[in-house]
Amino acid sequence: MEGKREMGSYKFCLIFTRKFRMTESGPVADVRELFEKYADGEAHMSPEQLQKLMAEEGGGGGETSLEEAERIVDEVLRRRHHIAKFTRRNLTLDDFNYYLFSTDLNPPIGDQVHQNMDAPLSHYFIYTGHNSYLTGNQLSSNCSELPIADALRRGVRVVELDLWPRGTDDVCVKHGRTLTKEVKLGKCLDSIKANAFVTSKYPVIITLEDHLTPKLQFKVAKMITQTFGDMLYYHDSESCQEFPSPEELKEKILISTKPPKEYLEANDAKEKDSGEKGKDSDEDVWGKEPEDLISTQSDLEKVTSSVNDLSQDEEERGSCESDTSCQLQAPEYKRLIAIHAGKPKGGLRMALKVDPNKIRRLSLSEQLLEKAVASYGADVIRFTRKNFLRIYPKGTRFNSSNYKPQIGWMSGAQMIAFNMQGYGRALWLMEGMFRANGGCGYVKKPDFLMDAGSNGQGFYPKDNSCPKKTLKVKVLMGDGWLLDFKKTHFDSYSPPDFFVRVGIAGAPVDEVMEKTKIEYDTWTPIWNKEFIFPLAVPELALLRVEVHEHDINEKDDFGGQTCLPVSEIRQGIHAVPLFNRKGVKYSSTRLLMRFEFV
């Protein structure tokens, strides 16, 4: 960022050469003004002055000690000056600019667990996967232990396994009634054990869809007990008033499924969702989804005729549907169940009834959730204060796409089950939500969802709702694409033409999308564009950022994305790392942005 200049050449029509000035921009005006303000007009900024800046501008996220400021100064000098000359221990303007534009030294959110982790488990949103063993689409992809390991290492805390007989004496994991290729249960359990607590020490919940005979249930109980041993948590959720906290359950594995006898009755108790086909209503103010990375709907039409209706979660269908031996009990298996699942008879209203002496988990499809919220919104929120609500994708999402998670969060649902291989904007939102609280996989629900005195009517603000908080976002500049992409990736004949889309996802009244102007023919665009977002529900708001490269003749190219929980954003100027479509962070590509709450 020292203002170096060089010429870049692009071939045009295979004969002519077009030359463009490749400029590595120096500090933008906001950075210069900040440096001058705290360096008191001098050419250098001392650690004491940096400490003051971090304290007053919010740049340290609470880390405002002199020792922290000295650590940053020393690290910047070590990186930027190959021959360490520590005759001075201060920052020049270019050093200061380097610090602000470093994603590891100056990130927009913190990386430490900071929320109260001593509340009951049901008081938290929990990072949840759906059909965690699938490598691709829901109908014909392979089943494997590898997606489970990947999800756990990404911070997911709830994984789902579908258990099916493999012959008469073995158990496999697969998506039933489809052409998916099975994987052995033992491999999945070993993968969970090896990866459960690599990223986060907080508990992992395994939700089981059980289609087994009592004999195989006994075998599964033995496999689970032998694999996890002391890691297993046993809990009688049928006779308790409060569930333990994430802190109390650190490094514990919890099993959640229906008690064996309830599977026989499941078909009588179930409420089949419509599973209607047709266009998904997933478009929002951001327009159409970027290019799909899983199988498209047309690709899957070849196999849909070979499988049964998948409009309902297998867990809601019941297991061993033609096996009368299911009337028997498997006490060893039942003892493993820490969170009992099931849907009582009597319809949706009865399913949402709260038993003061029991804790249970209820599963609803994304469509049934919408109906429940429309008809019994207050009951849904009341239910989730103590019990667990799991939402799963509708059965017609054959290509492993996902749905908007906001309605579930606004209703207090703890487990919004997502296809972790279903890359797209919905999954980006999920990843953004769980960047909060140090990425530990548990995010404390807002107080307004836990207020026992609420009537449930105040959780969907109207368009005229007064904002609780206003977020100002200024997109200053971007850099790093030339290091992460080939020179001709965006345009064969010239440098890229970048623009940024910025907006809010959350309560319907807060949802909005804006964009900067296009900066033409540059790898280091400077926008200096400010946006103002009034927020009625800042607790559940996510800041969405996407970079695109303008193409006048074709679809705009994708240049990176991120999603940040508004409640975690630090004020001041920060380096915002960008991620690819699969949620993998680019090595160098980032934005310099300024945040202010008013």
Which labels suit this protein?
single chain; TIM Barrel; Immunoglobulin-like; 3 domains; 4-stranded antiparallel sheet; 25% helix; globular
The largest β sheet comes out as:
9 strands, mixed
Mean pLDDT: 87
- Tell me the CATH architecture of the largest domain: Alpha-Beta Barrel
Extended strand count: 21
CATH superfamily grouping of the largest domain: Phosphatidylinositol (PI) phosphodiesterase
Which percent band covers the strand fraction?
A: 15-25%
Determine Rg (CA atoms, Å): 26 Å
Number of discrete domains:
3
The CATH topology name of the largest domain reads TIM Barrel
If helices are DSSP runs of H or I spanning 4 or more residues, what is the number of helices? 17
- What characteristic shape results from the CA principal axes? globular
Strand order of the largest sheet: 6-5-4-7-8-9-10-11-12
Helix fraction, binned, reads: 25-40%
Describe the structure.
The chain has three domains: 29-101, Recoverin, domain 1; 121-260 and 329-449, TIM Barrel; 465-597, C2 domain (Immunoglobulin-like, Sandwich). The protein is built from 17 helices and 21 strands. The protein has helices spanning 29-38, 47-57, 66-80, 93-100, 146-153, 185-195, 214-228, 260-269, 297-304, 314-317, 331-335, 348-351, 366-384, 406-410, 425-433, 447-450, 481-484, and strands at residues 5-12, 16-23, 124-126, 158-166, 170-173, 183-184, 204-210, 253-257, 337-341, 360-365, 388-392, 415-416, 442-444, 469-479, 498-505, 512-515, 526-535, 542-549, 557-565, 572-579, 585-597. The strands form five sheets. A nine-stranded mixed sheet has the order 6-5-4-7-8-9-10-11-12. A four-stranded antiparallel sheet has the order 17-14-21-20. β10 (360-365), α13 (366-384) and β11 (388-392) form a beta-alpha-beta unit. α2 (47-57) packs across α3 (66-80). Mean pLDDT is 87; it is low at 1-7, 263-281, 292-297 and 318-328. Its cofactor is Ca(2+). It is found in: Cell membrane.
